[in-house]
């Protein structure tokens, strides 16, 4: 799909400097993506060398995040393609022609210096049971910035829409009032800018540009960790803006009190007006998001195919989008509808969340080992806290990774019946929302399952 590259560019744009982005990524497009063989069109060989040596990691990450399999990335010069006649056997290869994806005609919108990416709007943010509270606060802020929800503290796991929602607020505020001064910045850039200006001897003036703002949007605040000086600077800026009734928006993957080394006063101030979270989407939410994304891109996809993706992707909305893009891309390439592809077994949706070849024995082994237990101990009737917890993690992983039925899981982990399993899996799902230690543990176990 042509918008995969658009999405990848938007991601790259967030990671590299504005100058680098506009210099090197202008006039690029995705020509083909066949079995992980990515071909990107560039202006000339100089560009391809620069992209290859400087930005290959960013390109690879962005493409992978947008659902493409990436084994090899090569660059093709656009001019030669137009002017030179290519060898017959290549142009004549019908498969190759079929694999060509039309480069997007619309050139990518250049980054604005307020850090906002116009692709994120409130209109294309789909509201469901997982995010309705946060979405209505966003609307209230657009109607009345700096009033009831100041600061707006938004938190939740990766890929659940934090960046989208706060960028949408910024874009909407600008749309309503083009003179409104907004700055969106990930905390890591704030930190880098601060260090840079101290190094250049402008440390004292650093806060000045922030104090002129009407709205400051800080993303991924969890990365403030341990950066005392910049934290102090941020705290001062925060207080000054707050006193002037300027809107402050902050996101994080966890509550401020759960971020180590965040000053207690700052932590409490960030959540003065409440803390709003984004949750994992339920089945209906996932279907609604997929339908909206497909419709927006003008692609045709059957309801059954949408339901199939929704059932199989249980991680987050970014992965959901990734799977949809892959399926639509494959459908384009192969000339089959998304549902036909699924029925033919030509795609394995959620391959990223279900490691190939992992079986229940391996899952039980890894979990038990991680918690320093034997499988026998873990699968005993013991109600000792750490053993019970390990058992519930095992139930959770068997359910998520292997989509095993609750009755089967009960037999695997030695519990009485499937209701104990349902309870155990729910318990972990609930705990995952706020227990970051558990989140890290489960991530670590998942990683071990791949090797
Ligand atoms: P986070 O910042 O929480 O990691 P993002 O805001 O980057 O997550 O969201 C990941 C992807 O999912 C983005 O492409 C975003 O547009 C999309 N997305 C998330 N939530 C929604 C939603 N409610 N409606 C439409 N798209 C969404
Ligand atoms: Mg984000």
Brief sketch in words of this structure:
The protein has 451 residues and is of the alpha/beta class. Helices cover 54% and strands 9% of the residues. It has helices spanning 2-15, 18-24, 45-54, 56-65, 78-83, 88-91, 94-99, 132-143, 162-176, 187-199, 208-211, 228-243, 264-270, 283-296, 303-312, 317-334, 338-343, 360-370, 375-378, 385-402, 406-413, 418-434, 436-450, and strands spanning 29-34, 37-42, 72-77, 152-155, 182-186, 215-219, 247-252, 275-277.
Mean pLDDT: 85
Number of helices: 23
- Strand runs, count: 8
Q: Which percent range describes the beta-strand content?
A: 5-15%
Strand arrangement, largest sheet?
5-6-7-4-8
Shape: globular
- Contiguous low-pLDDT stretches (5 residues minimum) are 80-112, 351-355
C-alpha Rg, in Å?
24 Å
> What small ligands are held by the chains?
adenosine-5'-diphosphate, magnesium ion
Largest sheet: 5 strands, parallel
* Structural class by secondary-structure content: alpha/beta
User: How many angstroms separate the termini?
Assistant: 32 Å
The amount of helix comes to 40-55%
């Amino acid at each position: 799909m042509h918008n995969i590259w658009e999405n990848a560019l938007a991601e790259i744009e967030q990671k590299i400097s504005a100058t680098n982005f506009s210099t090197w990524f202008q006039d690029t497009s995705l020509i083909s993506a066949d079995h992980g063989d990515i071909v990107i069109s560039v202006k000339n060989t100089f560009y391809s060398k620069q992209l290859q040596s400087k930005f290959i990691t960013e390109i690879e990450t962005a493409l992978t995040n947008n659902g493409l399999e990436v084994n090899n990335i090569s660059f093709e010069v656009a001019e030669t393609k137009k002017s030179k006649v290519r060898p017959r056997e290549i142009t004549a290869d019908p498969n190759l022609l079929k694999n060509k994806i039309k480069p997007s005609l619309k050139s990518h919108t250049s980054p604005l210096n307020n850090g906002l990416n116009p692709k994120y709007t409130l209109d294309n943010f789909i509201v469901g049971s997982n995010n309705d509270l946060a979405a209505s606060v966003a609307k209230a802020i657009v109607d009345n910035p700096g009033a009831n929800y100041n600061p707006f503290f938004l938190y939740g796991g990766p890929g659940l829409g934090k960046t989208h929602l706060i960028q949408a607020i910024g874009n909407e505020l600008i749309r309503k009032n083009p003179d409104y001064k907004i700055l969106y910045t990930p905390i890591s850039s704030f930190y880098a800018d601060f260090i840079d200006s101290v190094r250049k001897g402008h440390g004292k003036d650093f806060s000045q540009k922030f104090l002129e703002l009407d709205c400051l949007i800080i993303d991924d605040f969890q990365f403030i960790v341990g950066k005392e000086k910049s934290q102090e600077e941020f705290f001062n800026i925060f207080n000054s803006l707050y006193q002037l009734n300027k809107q402050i928006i902050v996101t994080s993957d966890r509550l401020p009190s759960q971020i180590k080394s965040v000053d207690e006063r700052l932590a409490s101030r960030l959540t003065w007006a409440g803390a709003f979270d984004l949750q994992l989407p339920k089945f209906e939410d996932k279907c609604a998001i997929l339908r909206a994304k497909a419709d927006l891109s003008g692609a045709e996809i059957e309801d059954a195919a949408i339901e199939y993706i929704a059932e199989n992707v249980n991680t987050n909305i970014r992965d959901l989008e990734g799977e949809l893009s892959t399926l639509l891309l494959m459908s384009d390439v192969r000339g089959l509808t998304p549902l036909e592809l699924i029925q033919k077994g030509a795609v394995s949706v959620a391959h990223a969340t279900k490691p190939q070849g992992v079986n229940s024995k391996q899952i039980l082994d890894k979990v038990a080992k991680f918690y320093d237990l034997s499988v026998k101990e873990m699968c005993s009737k013991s109600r000792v806290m750490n053993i019970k917890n390990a058992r519930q993690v095992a139930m959770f992983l068997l359910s998520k990774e292997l989509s095993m039925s609750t009755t089967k899981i009960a037999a695997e982990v030695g519990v009485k019946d499937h209701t104990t399993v349902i309870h155990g899996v729910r318990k972990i799902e609930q705990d995952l929302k706020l227990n970051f230690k558990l989140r890290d543990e489960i991530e670590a176990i998942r990683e071990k399952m791949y090797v």
